[in-house]
Amino acid sequence: MTFDGRPVYEAEEVEDAPRVLRPPMIRTARGITIILNGESFSVARTHPNYELVKEAIQERRWDDLPDLVNVEEAVATYCQQGNIVVRDGIVLYKDPRTGIEEECSGFVVDRILQFMEEGEDAEALLNFLDKIMTNTSSRVIRDLYTFLSNRNMPLDVDGDFYGYKAVKNDWMDKHSGTISNKPGEIIVFNRRNVDDDPQHDCSHGLHVGSIQYVKQFANRHGEERGDKIVIVKVNPADVVAVPEYDTTKLRCCRYEVIEEYRGILPDTTYEAGGLTEAERRPMDEDTDETFEDEDGEICDDCGNLIEDCDCDFDDIGY
User: Fold this and answer.
1) Is the pTM of this model over 0.90?
2) Which residue in 132, 193, 254, 271 has the most C-beta neighbors within 10 A?
3) CATH numbers and ranges of domains, the chain
4) In a 10 Å sphere around its CB, with 0-12 CB exposed, 13-18 middle and 19+ buried, how is residue 207 labelled?
């Protein structure tokens, strides 16, 4: 196994800097693993400093690697953006109006710290937290992420989340029959007219829910004249109530209709700008598994399959 024609498992003395040794390192489909001072560091492709690590390796700047792969340093740099700050393992929200920092807690905060400790991309979670901290309901701030994570309602990278809604065959809403829910429509309801009492399961407001909830109200869905199901996108700041007893739907004051439902959304965070063809693939509801792409891993650098990749790094699979 070689790295630029040299063994990757042996530290090597660099000709123009004899005191600087190249550390052992391995490239895999998921990133780079580097051994520094006897300690293994995994730099995933989603690591905040992944590109900088690659540049340092290509330019043989071995002294720069310890600081670049250090997750604490990467996290600190990565999080000093927008209104979210991570300092000493604490996630803080900085109020843009007053400048006052408020410590955040809850499941989403735990997930942010976990993602960062593992070198995973936490951008969607940070954007979600940034948006939900502007919500006027402390209960929604506390409960929303747990609700979403339990109901296959994934986040977009911009921090908004996706859910489902049943509408009539002509795209009009099922309650009044006067509100169009065609893809591209943005539906807005006066927030003060949305019931914010979490003990009321069904009440005034715009309802968005899980696919389990929506299928109960989509009459003859799938038939020629049956109801339709649409995928909608919601800003966490626009959620008004997460009912205590009905754990399959919530009330909000605004949502955007993305497209007609074709299959269960993937239980992941995916790119902004709508759904990809792979994400539109229907789910096998008997197995609850999505169809997998069996073509293999693709190298981000050259676009070839990993096993055919001829980049600067050697690939050993994973």
Assistant:
1) no
2) 132
3) 2-69+297-308 (no CATH), 71-134 (3.30.160), 160-294 (no CATH)
4) buried
